[in-house]
Amino acid sequence: MDTDERGTRTPGESHDAGPATERWRKLSEHLGDEVARARADAARAHADRDRAEALLRAAHLRQKDGRIAALVAERERQTAELLLARARAYIERTLPMMRTMRILLASMQDSKFWKARNAWFALKQRARLNASGPQPYWVPTVDDAEAGWDEEFPYERWLLANRVRPSDVERMRDVVPLLAVRPTFSVLMPVYETPEEMLREAIESVLAQPYPHWELCIADDASRAPHVRHVLEEYAAADGRVRVAFRETNGHIAATSNSALALATGDFIALLDHDDLLAPDALFENALVVNRRPDVDLIYSDEDKIDEQGRRSEPYFKPDWSPESVLARNYVSHLGVYRRALVERLGGFRLGFEGSQDYDLLLRFTELTDKIEHVPRVLYHWRVHAGSTASARDQKGFAQDAALRAIGDALERRGEAGTVTSSQAAPGIYTVRYAIPAPGRVSIIMPTRDHGADVDLALRTVFERSTYPDFEVVLLDNGSRDPESLRIFGKWAAAEPERLKIVPYDVPFNFSRINNHAAEHATGTYLLFLNNDTEVVTADWMEAMVEQAQRPPIGCVGAKLLYDDDTVQHAGVVVGLGGVAGHSHKHYPAAAPGYFYTLQTVNNYSAVTAACMMMRRDVFERAGGFDEALAIAFNDVDLCLRVREAGYRNVYLPHVVLYHHESKSRGYEDTAEKMARFADEQKTMLARWRTADAPDPYYNPNLTLMTEDYAIRP
User: Fold this and answer.
1) How far, in Å, CA of 688 to CA of 681, rounded?
2) Do residues 594 and 710 make contact, with C-beta atoms less than 8 angstroms apart?
């Protein structure tokens, strides 16, 4: 029977299709229509996404030029991000449906019925019975949608732009003879019962390095699997740079790493786990660093994860050397490259720190040198497989115990008394709380003009919730007129005569000037700049800030500030975001881990907000206080950058939490005068600190400067 309605039926031919044929026809047409609609919807979603990204770019450019108010720019950004999120969500919902339809149609057209139907059409065509011929095999493709969908996976897009190509490998080989310094890298690889395929791939990743000056030092920890010895002997016989030691007894990872170290003769050692992979350019990039800085002692790079199918994910784009950050987590990890002479001077890896022996080595090593370089490239791939540390960090509880002891030992060696705790929710995350041997007075500087209700809440939480024993509040009254506000100020002055000092200063608003003036009236060893629209949450907030501010290398200490809806308002400042500076993880839920737990760990930042910022008086004076030319915006960022320039480190504390009802006192940049002033202060920062093009050392150049969420740079 002819079931193709496109053909012309001959006289006398039945017009009634069989029930099965009719069902298949209707199903095919229905699915085809659904696919067409889905593709049209996906195209609209892609258009929405493109429009959203265009809005983001346009908002950024307008904000950078200072032609729109900060508030308007923020609203446009949020609108664009909402459109972008909706487009991405729709594409995510649509593609699985399209793929399912494709599979159904392909299955239908592969069926015996369909093949018989096509054979019948072919026969009728040959018999000149006006059949249209076999229906061509066709299923809707989703290639066009998938091309757009790939763009929604930022790391895949990043890999397309940054992957090492064969031509790059040839270029590296051509460059090597031209290098003035050609160090030898001893790659240490302790081995124990490694699956054969992974062991071979790990070794091959070293053999494939275009930089030829290396030796692979492998120590087997008495593996029982016979393939381990066979594979290692095979590679040692094939390449003289592969050196192998077979331990007679099992000594675990630290002892085995020392056995591998004993084989090393190179200038540097590089640490490679037996089931991981080096990127093709790993040793070449490290050699370039040595040529640029011959006295370097430690080099580390970015890393990602790779599964058993070779798919790469979870890139960790790291900051430059951050001493406080590394006490909170071993972010250096892989690929770590250490000068061998210093490692041997330390006695190698310490027994008893198995699972965190690399972390312990890092802490001891960096007490000997500050000649540390970071390569912002992914040079190491962690394997993700059953039983790997990369796939389940909590599988090795003993590693966490060893890390706690390693950090505790580091504090003792450095003469800094304190305690270390680990996070139960996030293994591998630690918090150091320092002892305060000589508590000094904290002067809380709180400027205000009226806003009595806000000040009332701020003072009540400061006085009622704080447990620090020695502090004063310097309430700077910048020309208050409201009777109710003045009544509230008087109420607190009467209630806290020893701890509250009201300093009148009726001048045009200039945040820098009034804080500098208040600092002159403060008597404390520590200055704590605090907005009048804050609310204390953490009782020991001052203790925690003093713990860090008392330390000689520390400059400015910041806190985690939350909006009323328990999302993040401030968790450190990244220089360059939006052209000048922006807040890390803004609008994230307060309990979110953030980028590789950055939100929940003590971290170095270039700047912190003066809405809640502590520093020693001597640091403040050495930096010259706030710059009064920056009356409204960026004065705290500028101060922090001058503090950093003076040799101090700034730090963010996640365990110090306050609410911040932002901009209540001053309002938004929503007038022509305020917009012009904001634009001028932007220009000052751009000229003084090159914030638009000078990379923030505590951020990573592979991360975006368009948003505050640590997204990968497009």
Assistant:
1) 10
2) yes
Contact, 261 vs 217, CB < 8 A? yes
Q: What's the confidence (pLDDT) of residue 60? A: 60
Return all residues near 156 (Cβ < 8 A) that are at least 6 apart.
150
Tens digits of residue pLDDT in 270-279: 999 999 999 9
> For 677, what's the count of Cα atoms within 13 Å in the CB-facing half-sphere?
16
Tokens representing residue 601 in the block: 């760990």
Give the burial string for 394-428 (b: 16+ CB within 10 Å, else e). eebeebbebbbbbbebbbeeeeeebebebbeeebb
pLDDT tens column, 482-494: 999 999 999 999 9
Residue 65 has pLDDT above 60, yes or no: no
* Helix (H) or strand (E) run with residue 377 in it: strand 372-383
What DSSP element (H or E) covers 657?
Answer: strand 649-660
Q: What is the mean pLDDT of residues 426-445?
A: 95
Helices (H), 66-138: 70-109, 112-126
Distances 155 to 19, 152, 177, 347, 712 between C-alpha atoms, Å: 50, 9, 33, 40, 7
Average pLDDT over every residue of 57-83: 56
Task: Read off the tokens for 515.
Answer: 């804080």
Give the distance from CA 293 to its chain's centroid.
27
Cis peptide before 335 (omega within 30 of 0): yes
Cα torsion for 706, 709, 712, 714, to the nearest 10°? Answer: -30
Burial class (CB in 10 A: 0-12, 13-18, 19+), 309: exposed
The helix/strand/coil state of 559 is strand
State the CB neighbour count (10 A cutoff) for residue 169: 16
* Contact between residue 202 and residue 277 where contact means Cβ atoms under 8 Å apart: yes
pLDDT of residue 366: 98
